[in-house]
Write a structure and sequence with these properties.
Elements lengths: L7 E6 L2 E10 L9 E3 L5 E9 L2 E11 L40 E8 L4 H5 L12 E13 L9 H4 L2 E8 H7 L16 E2 H13 L14 E6 L5 E2 L9 H10 L6 E4 L2 E4 L2 E6 L9 E6 H5 L15 E2 L1 E2 L26 E2 L5 E2 L1 E5 L3 H6 L6 E5 L4 E5 L5 H11 L21 H4 L7 E3 L13 H10 L3 E5 L10
Parallel strand pairs: 10-15, 16-18, 17-19, 21-23
Antiparallel strand pairs: 1-2, 2-3, 2-6, 4-5, 5-8, 6-7, 7-8, 9-11, 12-13, 14-15, 20-24, 21-22
Helix pairs in contact: 4-5, 8-10
Amino acid sequence: MDIIEEATFSTKFNQVKHEVELYLDSGDGASSSNFFPINPSSVINFSIEETLANWVTKGSLTFFYNPDTGGGMNSKTGQSNDATTNIASTDGKSFYQFRGDGNDRLRLRIIPNLSDTNSQEENIKISDPKHWTLSYLFNIYDMEDIDELPGAQNQASSVLKCLKIYFWDEWYQKMITNIIEYSTAISNTQQKKPTGLAMKEIIDKALKDVPSAQAPDPTGSVAQEDWENGAAEIFFTAPTQTNAYECLMYVYDKHMSDKKLSVNTTEVFDFSLLTKERGREANDVGYLTLKPLSYYFERAGKSKNSPGKFQFEHFFLQAYADSSKRPKSYRAPMASNKSDTVDFKSFKYGAITSYRFVDISSLTNSTEFCSTPVYSFDFATRLYQVEFKTPSVKTAREFISKQYIDQLYKSGTDPEKLFLINLDSNKQKNKNLKPTFSLYGDDPIIRQADGIQKLIYLASFYSSLLLKNLYQTKLNPNH
């Protein structure tokens, strides 16, 4: 995407300068007259929610906003009008007027300043800017007036005007508003297609007219080298009034990687992650990938002094303790050399002082992480069957231990002992069960999507997590 210079400013995060681009866009991105920069002085709160488990990034922005004040006037905040959302005070341009149809766009790009003196003090050198760039293009789906401003007293709420907007990924907005006609049987005598291929076709069809999903990636929104077809095949036709996102997620629910592991003489297929990676260029908004979860663990690093390529940064936890006691050793591989792409270390900015641990709740463990017998019926052979062995918590534990945990740097030689979710006697004796039914009685591979795949996902994403606060700051160039 092109950089809008009028919407670009410099600010500091953790005392390191960053270049920030922030603006609203009421058009399709083709005309610069539709760009309305947001002054950082007007921003009260900006939060972004991005997780590995969901490719759709969401968030909210709260800022001073007074649509009654036009160009060439002072706003009710006591600031000149260029401190809010209009571009300039000399051209008479009014404040941003929201379309309210889901096509108001919010652009955000944050990149560290490579020549910042604070970075040079620690001898931090960044060779790949896009590796450290946050670049998003959002669509606004809801907004609300804020009548209780943070720190406002007495009559301030009647003088100051604030707006909170809620946004999510532009591609997601385009997909949920696109009712598509799609079938795996089109120009296909076999009728079935690999689930990964069907997902790619749905994405390409839904986003073919979205500019941010095309350039500079010649393959569109999906990267060929980061996309797998998977082990399962599906015969799917989009139902009436079903949007592209619903079609995509239905097929994804039946998808599993072609990477497999033999567990108790049974082949168990790996769970795959549909994620949105950082763009190939610093200004790109990213591209979609579909890769097995083991792909990430294999690149985390297994030996003490050799972190993997996916161990981007090394952070350190701080806590008060008895000075006579020896601090615990490092819990991750530690490289001796300096790098900005693998095991990046900054003792000045990488020390975490505020953190908390989050574990799977007892309720989720006891009611959700249970063996899931899969019932099915094969209409061709008139065969009714029930699978107990593969979709069990014991199988899930062994698979995760060998496929994921064993790829990490750890103490001990038995990875199953590091599996954190407790299996009580009712689970081990198959008394606590959650039976389910699969429509695919003729396909033992795709039936795993209704059983063991759900258990692998649950155990992987609901286990112990560490939540940390890196910094709290405001988009303000004066800070």
